[in-house]
Design a protein that fits this description.
Layout lengths: L11 E4 L17 E3 L7 H26 L1 H9 L3 H21 L7 H9 L12 E4 L4 H8 L23
Antiparallel strand pairs: 1-2, 1-3
Helix pairs in contact: 1-3
Length: 169
């Protein structure tokens, strides 16, 4: 990720990937991408998202720590050791809070705020998927692609093909 330089504003080209449960390193797919559409947000919604992302930090760290103690957790569950589970939970939660406090608060950059409040995008994907390019012309075509009829698997009923693309430096 080259974040926050590249983020999920409308028109961003981003690499797809498998979910965190099978891909904890968040490695991008080499053969699938998506073009961001999203929606336009107001300032207060972005502020709420910042708050939520900062609060979620502790949960993410806690879950990572819990993963490292899974064998111990399974043993305690099997033994019905509720006190041991509670003590471990308290210890891991305190450690998660301590680690989260050492990290800087998440804040959208002024460039992100400008983009998300004017052209739109999908800010909740920032830092989760790799942004590697941008549609610089033809956003109206992207809007049309978004409107095509899809099947139950969310695939277009008729293939949508990119006939010509130009790579700019």
């Amino acid at each position: 990720f080259v974040y926050p330089k590249y983020f999920h504003k409308k028109g961003a080209l981003s690499a797809a990937r498998q979910g965190d449960n099978v891909n904890p390193k968040k490695e991008s797919s080499g053969c699938q991408f998506y073009i961001v559409t999203g929606k336009v947000y107001n300032d207060s919604t972005l502020l709420s998202m910042e708050r939520q992302m900062n609060e979620n930090k502790v949960n993410v760290i806690f879950n990572t720590l819990a993963q490292k103690h899974m064998k111990e957790i399974y043993k305690m569950r099997k033994a019905n050791d509720e006190n041991g589970l509670y003590d471990l939970q308290e210890k891991l939660f305190a450690e998660a809070q301590e680690q989260a406090a050492k990290q800087p608060e998440f804040r959208f950059t002024s460039e992100q705020i400008e983009a998300y409040t004017t052209v739109g995008g999908t800010p909740h994907l920032d830092g989760e998927y790799t942004v590697f390019g941008e549609v610089t012309e033809g956003l109206d075509v992207v809007d049309k692609i978004q409107q095509v009829k899809t099947d139950r698997s969310d695939r277009p009923e008729e293939d949508v093909k990119i006939i010509k693309a130009t790579i700019l430096d």
